[in-house]
Amino acid sequence: MPELPLTLGTLKTSKFGEQQMSQRSVKSELRENLICKLQRGDDLFPGVVGYEDTVVPQIVNAVLSRHNFILLGLRGQAKTRIIRMLTGLLDERLPYIAGCEIRDNPFHPICRRCRDLIAEKGDQTPIAWLNRDERYVEKLATPDVTIADMIGDIDPIKAARGGHQLSSEMTVHYGLLPRANRGIFAINELPDLAGKIQVGLFNIMQEGDVQIKGYPVRLPLDIMLVFTANPEDYTARGKIITPLKDRIGSEIRTHYPLSVDQGLSITKQESWTERPSPIRQEVPNYIREIVEQLAFLAREDKRVDKRSGVSQRLPISVLENVISNAERRALKAHEDIAVPRVLDIYAALPSITGKLELEYEGELKGGDAIARELIRMAVGKVYTTYFEGVNVSQIVQWFELGGSLKLEDAADSEAMLKQLSRIQGLMEKTGALGLGASEPDAVRVSAAEFILEGLYAHRRISRNEEVGFTAGERKREPPEGGEGRRPPRRQFN
Q1: Interior CA angle at 468 toward 363 and 484, to 5°?
Q2: CB crowding 391-417: b at 16 or more within 10 Å, else e
Q3: Domain coordinates of the chain in residue numbers?
Q4: Rounded distance between C-alpha atoms, residue 423 and residue 425, angstroms
């Protein structure tokens, strides 16, 4: 990379000065760089899964149209991640007048301090450089944010030190918005911002005028404004005032993964599963699918608040907790491999209940009971994908003839495999999961327990954490709330 000019004179004669003299706006810069990326076929938002045919094309259209835009969606839909990745569309370097609080363009300064400096030093005016990440400013909107925070305020100390009148532009202490000049300014949870602050925003967006402590200051800022909001906030905590909403060029709706495969990709990418440990971890695909189905079922459940949503953080946190429970068990049993079981999903209830906002009916039933029902339903769905059409009557018959089985939570894999092998036909059916007899004991135990849990989910056998059911009580619903938070053992009969 060529050496960067450090004075106004050398900047004028360099290739970097051409774009600045043309007074290209930030929105035009984003547009031009986006066009280049589209022509090259670059991945615009790497790591963002499931938006390729929905959200991303709308963001591309907004940038190509030079619009300020808002991402509107429920929690956990990658809104903040997306707006932070917009910096990838900015130039790698940008010159500005050294020491300027609002990063003035050396060829088109808008603040009094920079105009005076250029008049005094001319081509010797010092130049500094911003990288693209420094041109992004983000603010979480809260009700206590003031105009001074966003726009600026009169600084009496600056006035005293410089010998300026308080009415002078030189006494202004600039807020976040002017400091984002020539960059991207993002506001998260826009409806939480007080109405009068929103008025200041749209005035800057439209006219570039602002009054600070009664003194009019003209700031024709060059900014790309992006916002995020949750639809619930429009009525619950605040609203976006109509004049500001009218000045936002595009309103783009985000969404949760549209398919389980998309959810699996996101969870695998974001969860902390590749972790340093003295033992090896192996997560079966059916365990990942159950965890993901859990989130999809929760989003459809009438007892879960749709306005709040079920974040993608739920399956991410649950999978991490599931692996940790399997890791804990393997460490205590002195085994060299940790393989999660369905049992471990029930042990991950603390990472489920805190992420479910329940309706009145759900509150009456209780978060633990709702979570357990969702797990059972998820197991049933995933079991069907693997064992639909598979004859398991031999396993069911073993229980109907009086067989029963208790699976201890802390038992090592070898002991559990001996117990499971007593059930006629059970271990043979693990072949439907792609397992062979040479698989480690922990893997085979996990698969066999999944089959039993699937049969329980479909009401083919019964299960109770304490004493179990007789064959004649198979069709009863499981007791509500009668199971502990972390069951010590399981009994099938």
Answers
A1: 35
A2: ebeebbebbeeebbbbbebebbbeebb
A3: 8-253, 260-492
A4: 6
How far apart, in Å, do the first and last CA atoms of the chain sit?
A: 72
Asked if 126 contacts 99 with a C-beta cutoff of 8 angstroms, the reply is yes
Distances (CA, A) of 55 to 58, 59, 65, 220, 289: 5, 6, 15, 31, 25
What's the predicted TM-score (pTM) here?
0.85
Burial label for 161, CB within 10 Å (0-12, 13-18, 19+), is exposed
Residue type, 391: N
CA of 254: how far to CAs of 103, 247, 330, 453, in Å? 33, 20, 40, 35
Helix ranges, 348-389 (H)? 350-353, 360-365, 367-387
How far is Cα 22 from Cα 26, in angstroms, rounded to an integer?
12
What are the residue ranges in the chain where pLDDT is below 70? 1-2, 17-20, 154-171, 207-217, 232-238, 465-493
Query: Which residue is listed with tokens 């357990």?
Result: 372
Task: Give helix 55-64 / helix 26-40 axis angle, nearest 10°.
Answer: 130
pLDDT of residue 467: 41
Locate the DSSP E strands across 162-305: 172-174, 183-188, 209-212, 215-218, 223-229, 250-253, 280-281
Helix axes 441-457, 367-387, angle to 10 degrees: 110
CA distance 356 to 371: 9
Round to whole Å and give the CA distance between 23 and 29.
10
Q: What is the pLDDT of residue 156?
A: 60
Burial of 19 (0-12, 13-18, 19+ CB in 10 A): middle
| Site of tokens 């004179």 | 9
pLDDT score, position 169? 63
pLDDT of residue 85: 96
Distance between CA atoms of 423 and 399, rounded to whole angstroms?
A: 8
**CA distances, 86 to each of 145, 227, 242, 275 (Å):** 25, 12, 26, 30
State the fold for domain 8-253: Rossmann fold (3.40.50)
Question: CA-CA distance, 226 to 399, in Å (whole number)?
Answer: 61
Question: What pLDDT, in 10s, does the model give residues 417-462?
Answer: 998 888 888 899 998 898 877 889 999 999 999 999 999 998 888 8
Query: Does residue 244 contact residue 201 with C-beta atoms inside 8 Å?
Result: yes
* Cβ-based neighbour number of residue 112 at 10 Å: 14
Burial class (CB in 10 A: 0-12, 13-18, 19+), 360: exposed
